[in-house]
Write a structure and sequence with these properties.
Structural class: alpha+beta
CATH class: Alpha Beta
CATH topology: Nuclear Transport Factor 2, Chain: A
Largest sheet: 5 strands, mixed
Distance between the termini: 36 Å
Number of domains: 1
Radius of gyration: 15 Å
Strand order of the largest sheet: 1-5-4-3-2
Order of helices and strands: EHHEEEE
Shape: globular
Strand content: 25-35%
Number of strands: 5
Amino acid sequence: MKIAFIYDAVHPRQKAERRREFTRCIKLLLTNHLLDASEEYDVNLENVLRALFFPNEVVRGYSGRFVAHKLLNDHLIRVVYEYENGIPVVVTLYIARVVMYEDKILSRFGCT
């Protein structure tokens, strides 16, 4: 399966007419558990990858795993991943309400 993920953002110092496209291949493993969870929570793979590559923050999880947080309205996408032989393995994701984390984590970064 090939996934094309294109993120287009204009930097404040960049003129819109001078945009250049950059292509980068990133090898990562998406587990079946992640694919099932994304279907269960009705989160498309673009939002999963956006949370993984452009998170609001990343925190340490259990057993050496990492959790990427991405705000989505009044919810928080939490993508759990780890590294196996230098390759990111995206284990699962779940959706939480922001209020559950605003005092613990997100307030430190001004995200609430």
